[in-house]
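[agent] plan:
  1. take the single chain provided in the ticket
  2. run structure prediction with default settings
  3. attach structure tokens to the ticket
  4. add a short note for the reviewer (M.T.)
[agent] executing step 1
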Amino acid sequence: MPVAPNTASSMIVRTASNPAYTIYNLGQNQILLGQDIITSGQLGSDFNFAGPGAVVWDFPQNTLDLWVSHPSTIVVGGSGGTTFSVPVTQFVVYNINGNTITGSSPLGEIGQDWQVQGIGYFFRDPSLGQGDLLTRNVSNNTATYLAYDTENNQFNSFIVAAKVGANFNTAGLGAYFTLSGSTFAQLMVLSDGVGGLWEYAYSNGTLVNSQLFATIGNGKDWEVLGLGHFSSQFGLNMIVRNIDTQQVWIYDVIQTGTGYAAQLSSAVSPGQTQPGVLGPIGLEWKVAGIAPLNANLFPANLVTDDLVMRNTNTGALQAYNIRSDTLTGSAALTPPAANPIAATSTVGGMAVDFSPQASGSTSQLVQAMAGIDPGSGAAGGLNAAPLGADSSQQSFLTTPQHG
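[agent] step 2 finished; step 3 output follows
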């Protein structure tokens, strides 16, 4: 079935009991249509979204990809011909086009002590390849990050994306690229817990630089809500929230001679007097996703993301429109009566959707818009926790298994 007319992005939601997965087409600051794509019984109840940002756009295949995972075991050979079972997490990807699943494939397995941090583009830019899985493990007071190349719906290889102190946690992922397409970098931003944000930039599976990205307060009073493309003038933007005042701020990510840096925006939003301030968003609102919510996806150089927040008490969704680094409006996203969203349901994320009713060059768009949101975010009062941190002390990692 084609997506609803005027669809710009789509969101996938999982019910809590008798798990079913429903896709919602978003456009014109509305939820235009809801449709079940996986009903209860078709996927085991122990499957869930594969961490933050489980919904991403796969440009080469022109599909919306849904990533799910569940605990499992594999049999490993030991010495003397013995075997033993090893607990793992199994990952499966579903390719979706026009609100219809066009295929699915086991991606592989990793050790259960590795926690998903998000999905980004570490090995190739979004116009050329599928998203890559970022995982984190803590052992001996060291946090290790691994990025898996998942081209062609399988784990092919991985790189050690970073080794840092256990005090470092994931703040967000974002794709930086110039409008001309001459520069692309997948940024992983880590927080050191005392106000320092450190960027790790990757291109073609290689770390190209890492350095202090920005210093914000003392680290305990601020949280990164997400990275996205909120201005056509910058390759990437970052949104943060002050926990004490609940004020939300926007930063521009710029390329420097040695790497990348975040600087507070000089834009002034309507009703505000201080540059860079978007306004307050209550802490009860968490990021549901970052993606375009308006139907006009062209011209590509004018496409920007919107921020969607979800109320943790009621499950309500609120869209925040951000243009040229300023908050230009806000609207409640009300699901259709036939496909309500319960407060106990889980939002897996959202991404730009070029299914049948949308046309044009996806490669042109991906070069012009800020990256697809690989992580989870908050919006409604702009409030979202940083991507989850793992406290596991195990270090076992299985090699990729192909299904």
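[agent] step 4 note for reviewer: The helical segments are 362-368.
[agent] ticket updated
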